[in-house]
Amino acid sequence: MAEPQYKRILLKLSGESLGGVQGYGISPLRAEQVAAQIKRVLAHQVQVGIVIGSGNIWRGVDGISRGMERAQADYMGMLATVINSLALQDALERMGVVVRVQTAIEMRAVAEPYIRRRAIHQLEQGYVVIFGAGTGNPYFTTDTAAALRAMEIGADVLLKATKVDGVYDSDPVTNPQAKRFERLSYIEALNMGVKVMDSTALSLCMDNDLPIIVFKLDQDNEIERVVLGENIGTIVSR
User: Fold this and answer.
1) CA 45 centroid distance within chain
2) Is 141 in contact with 201 (CB distance < 8 Å)?
């Protein structure tokens, strides 16, 4: 059996990953499928932290485009990430996985407040830790929250699961000739303005030398394949 390449990972999931075919709301079936992939990774004794977006419930840009205050829209998005975190927690727990949800905005009735040392201890105990509510501050995306939490917990890599199988030089949906990159440097990714991760998150990873792997979340074992070192997706590193 192949050996895992990483001891501790931070998995960034989009909100749409829980949306199923319709792409919005929460599909219990899709949550179970994602949870099953995560459980396969845990079987390799890999520690897993997770940040999940909110696009299946609320997109702040939609509210902003209609005149909503940016901070208000962002806070609504942070709360939506907690809903997704609880849905994924439930799916994992029904599979026998011990999970803790920690939130940057305190809501003790449903989740623990984010405490870095507690999160690391829980990871070391084999728990999955889901970090909800972004950074707790407006004007920051869940990509940036994922990069920040990855640094704080000492993750070996940031895994960004998307709808495309890596980073392309143009949109592969509209351009069949788009070229996929196997590797990019942080500077190349920043200069290209790649859409898979915002510049703040990329810069934070670059400053702290944290590699990013962008891959498509579509098969039953895609996360496991990345963790075991298979050459899929795009690696962004120094």
Assistant:
1) 19
2) yes
Q: Are 4 and 44 in contact (CB under 8 A)?
A: yes
pLDDT in tens, 75-87: 999 999 999 999 9
CA pair distance 237, 1, nearest whole angstrom: 27
Fold held by 8-237: Carbamate kinase (3.40.1160)
Model pTM?
0.94
CA separation for the pair 25, 142 (Å, rounded): 18
- What digits encode the pLDDT tens for the residues 152-200? 999 999 999 988 888 887 777 788 888 888 999 999 888 887 677 889 9
Query: Which helix (DSSP H) or strand (DSSP E) does residue 119 occupy?
Result: helix 116-124
Contact 23, 56 (CB under 8 A): yes
Best CA proximity match to 155, nearest among 32, 16, 51? 51
> Distance (Å, rounded) from C-alpha 172 to C-alpha 159?
20
Structure tokens at 71: 């901070």
Question: Coil, strand, or helix at residue 128?
Answer: strand
Backbone torsions φ then ψ of 36, nearest 5 degrees: -65, -40
Residue 147's contacts (CB-CB under 8 Å, 6 or more residues apart) are 158, 200, 201, 202, 204, 205, 210
Q: Which two tokens stand for residue 31?
A: 């949550």
